[in-house]
Amino acid sequence: MSARAAKAEHAAADFVRLTDVIKRFGSAPPALDGIEGRIRGGEITGLVGPDGAGKTTLIRLMTGLMLPDSGTIEVLGFDTRQNPTAIQAAIGYMPQRFGLYEDLSVQENLDLYADLRGLPKAERPAVYDELLTFTDLKRFTGRLAGKLSGGMKQKLGLACALLKKPRLLLLDEPGVGVDPISRRDLWKMVEDLTREGIGVVWSTAYLDEAEMCDNVFLLNQGKLLFTGPPAGLTSRVDDRVFKLTGLTGRRRPILAKTLELSGVIDGVIQGEAIRLVLAPGAKSPVETEIGSKLRLVPATPRFEDAFVDMLGGGPGGWSKLADATTKLPSDGGRPVIVAHGLTKRFGDFTAADDITFEIPRGEIFGLLGPNGAGKSTTFKMLCGLLKPTEGEGRVAGFDLRRDTAEARNRLGYMAQKFSLYGDLSIAQNLAFFAGVYGLNGRRKRERIALMTEIFEFAPHADMSAKDLPLGLKQRLALACAVMHEPEALFLDEPTSGVDPIMRREFWTHINGLVEKGVTVLVTTHFMEEAEYCDRISLIYRGRSIALGSPDELKARVASKDNPDPTMEDAFITLVQESEAEAVTA
Amino acid sequence: MSDSRRLDRVRRLAALVRKETYQVIRDPSSILIAFVLPLILLFLFGYGVSLDATRTRIGLVVEDPTPVTRDLAASFQASRYFEVVNGNDRREFEEDLITSRVRGIVVIPATFAADYAAGTSPAIQVIVDGSDPNTASFVQNYARGVVANWAALRGADAAARPPAISVEQRFWFNPQLTSRFFLVPGSIAIVMTLVGTLLTSLVVAREWERGTMEAIMATPVTAAELLIGKILPYFILGLASMTLCMLLAIFLFGVPFRGSILALYALSASFLVPALGQGLLISAATKNQFLASQLALLSAFLPAFLLSGFLFEINSMPTVIQWITTVVPARYFISSLQTVFLAGDIWPLFLQAIAVMLLIGAVFFALAARSTRKRIG
Questions:
Q1: B56-157: which CATH topology?
Q2: Beta-bridge mates of residue A492
Q3: Do A65 and B212 touch (CB under 8 A)?
Q4: Which residues form the ABC transmembrane type-2 domain (chain B) (predicted)?
């Protein structure tokens, strides 16, 4: 039987039936609100949405480890309320951190899960052999799971979930924190499984992953926005997505201007070009209003374009924050941020190896790489939080080792996951960070008042930061980082997990600030976000393996088979090239 | 079919126990809590802490020097419990008492000699610092002892006079009243509280934090298997840790061991039931290691220390506190430990203690089992 035929045959069966599922936690708005849908065998079904959308809750409900407040969930014919045991015997589940015992070796983890799942001893050698080959972990059976790389952990987690061949495989954000190569490998493995008729649920916050699924559930704040094949969603923006090319000079002011035009729903920087989504029926107003040298070429709609469209379009391009920022004088092209041979070793582990780059004023520079690659280490050395083993870093001309205080006063730092004081209110957080950055007296009051006005904090000023919705947290974190008008802004994974609207709002401010002469260093593992940068450095296993503008890097890997590679294609090819070099050297 | 199902069950349980054992062996923090901390505690109580006060400094005021009072003063000076500073007026020592340069003032009043001669019971005054009750009562009791001794000796000297009733103290089981002999066995209870309650609650909370609990819950494993899979390894670890303490107590600290090994293990095993039950209950209530450790320290470790009769006599506690101590399992364990080491096997006493500990344990387990279902959140 051909794979496609097998797929078609299994596709008939509903593996999961969700009927008006509602789940609340405490008094907050429901985590899941009236979810309806079907998940079929032999397919990859994506649960797609930003953090807090309800993806994990929905998966947990399917495992029977959590029960809905109302509505029913039927998994493989069993109701999760009545018969969770039967469900748990027939599914494979990989929770977010893979569910591995770090003190146990690869083999011991497999043995444990084989025993728990009741895999007969006689079958084990064959199954182990198959799974270890499949995951390419054969050489590492004796290694402790805690000592594996993120990608290897993910594969081992998958192997553990597959020991007793499940009919339904539930994967909760398997792509998070894993390098793109492992992510792609995993995807291929999962695709193979669907050919055997296994149903796969893959939750993700990456919208590019959504595009590859057979079916998606698009969730936002507990609501199901869309269910069906992803093409069904992207088709809503068919013929409305364009690339604005032929830009010369600075393209961010053009983006800002374009976003303010009526008829433009969404726009982002994409390398040298600007990607635009127009309103239905809007007759590309761009050429006439922006300039005649520009060309508007149709582009293939992406899932993200459709998602933004569905949420009612992105914010405008005008940043009140940038307006209130005084323009920094240009100073003859002297770089604002300098990393020179930065190296950090922890014991015999080199977390960052000879990282070198210079960022001129008004540029956005990105460090792109998977978790654990050394981005955050490099980052922390440059803002004076970590002492380099070798090399030096300078911010605004100050050496970070000798003039730490001066250097720090000129930089604003926005940490991963918005490290705010959760028990302090918005006003208290602002006052605290103003104090930390040395503002006082009238200036402090003025800046706090300004931030409160720009980001519209007033109605929430007394709320504890930890109770704020994600979008407000992001605004507050940004406000705290820019309150003292820093020359350089350090953003560590600034938009991970937020929805695309919030990400656009955030970048509108950053784009505006950059036009005022602020220099930005940003770390990200979002390939799309990397394209908002002027230049990026690809960080992999502690080293910078490539540096250039997004378009340059993409062009470097373009080939006959793949004339228009994505950022992810570029990353993967460049990593493979650098590894091949390492082998020959 | 049911045979293979039973086999599956046994295999799952064995797998959980094996996993836990590997983790204990490989995780330095478990070894720290189960073996290193006990050593530190034992050494602390064996060598560092002693409740025997020797040579306490007191101020001795003889208001009217007569042969009789001088003789009594000499008795105080000769006592090996006191270091005496002489004076004529209690006011000389007031400042010293406040600043703790002396721990008490003993006043032999001007009327002492006359009262003594008249045969009425002569009184002395002992002024102590009530803010340090332990030392205060020590000074008070020993001062009284010195006077009683002195009176008895004088009585014997002056054979004409019928000797006053003399109280002869004899301490059984621990004739030298060496505090180490009851502190070291008692600290075994503290150690087992650490392993049973603190370590257990920590390892369960850790599974929640690392997401492994969620992963194994989504397998066919049952809640009971999960529970037993946690209890068994730490039960054995607790007994191992107790064995280490026992050997050190006997061979290093020279604590006499007059009971039987059987009794010691029976008591320890029974104590582990409430200790583990409490640990599981804590981890069911909190899924975070920090909170679990705080709760374990507050609800198990401190009571085992303070409300068990380990350091402080239960009989001298306020009534309400005494009631509270009845639900502290360590209370029964510590008194039994002291008995099994210093006195010997007194089974009626042990059986009673075992019964109470098991009862408390049963309550903890019932509560823990009720809250340990295969559910998240």
A1: abc type-2 transporter like fold (3.40.1710)
A2: A523
A3: no
A4: 136-375
